[in-house]
Design goal:
Blueprint: E1 4-9, E2 38-39, E3 48-54, H1 57-64, E4 72-79, H2 84-92, E5 95-96, E6 99-100, E7 105-109, E8 129-136, H3 143-150, E9 155-163, E10 172-173, E11 182-184, H4 187-196
Parallel strand pairs: 3-9
Antiparallel strand pairs: 1-3, 1-11, 2-3, 4-8, 4-9, 5-6, 7-8, 9-10
Length: 205
């Protein structure tokens, strides 16, 4: 029987169970005591939010392969004034590490009123900050941070809020999960995840 968990990863936790030598970061083992599950994708230690873990190898691959085009939703606090040219750059895609990113969805949003991060964000006096709602279909190394930096908006805080299963149903999200908490997927969610493995591969524009 497949085990799949949704976890609200806190700041300062690696998306793995093994401690890295000399690393100051904690690991998933500090929060999750279910053998055999591994993260489907990753969040950097200094990022927060939704992480899906499963013991099903094909499901891990299915959710992380960008050719399937699963939209991942983020709230991003950035330093600087969010302008339309910056948003247009994110939407069109930017070049990071020598390769263009896929087009994204990006818009400015009001402060979402999240609980304070621990440790708190360090703000620079007289430097404005703002919030973006950003959606990506790929998960390259530190992609959100590299993208916002490329349009002149360094990331201060990053929270993944949801993963769209692209089946017409609601995305998997953080609803009901406080930072550091996890739950098993509900039976209807498990059924939808199983359906993903039977779906024909789409073409991503």
């Amino acid at each position: 029987m497949t085990t799949t968990l949704l976890f609200h990863k806190p700041y300062g936790v690696l998306s793995q169970f093994t401690q890295e030598p000399g690393s100051p970061w904690r690991t998933l083992a500090d929060h999750i005591h279910r053998p055999g599950v591994y993260a489907a994708g990753r969040l950097d230690a200094d990022s927060e939010g939704l992480l899906l873990l499963t013991d099903h190898g094909r499901l891990q691959q299915r959710l992380t392969d960008p050719t399937w085009g699963h939209w991942r939703r983020y709230l991003v606090q950035v330093e600087g004034v969010i302008t339309e040219p910056a948003l247009a750059g994110l939407r069109q895609g930017v070049t990071i590490q020598g390769r263009p990113t896929l087009p994204a969805r990006a818009r400015a949003v009001e402060d979402p009123g999240l609980p304070e991060r621990e440790p708190p964000i360090r703000h620079r006096l007289r430097v404005p900050t703002g919030w973006l709602a950003l959606e990506l279909r790929e998960g390259r190394n530190r992609q959100v941070r590299r993208m916002t930096a490329a349009v002149g908006l360094p990331t201060l805080r990053l929270l993944r809020t949801a993963i769209d299963l692209m089946d017409g149903g609601p995305p998997l999200d953080l609803q009901g999960l406080k930072s550091g908490a996890w739950r098993e997927v509900a039976p209807p969610e498990a059924e939808r995840l199983g359906d993903l493995l039977r779906r024909a591969r789409p073409s991503v524009p």
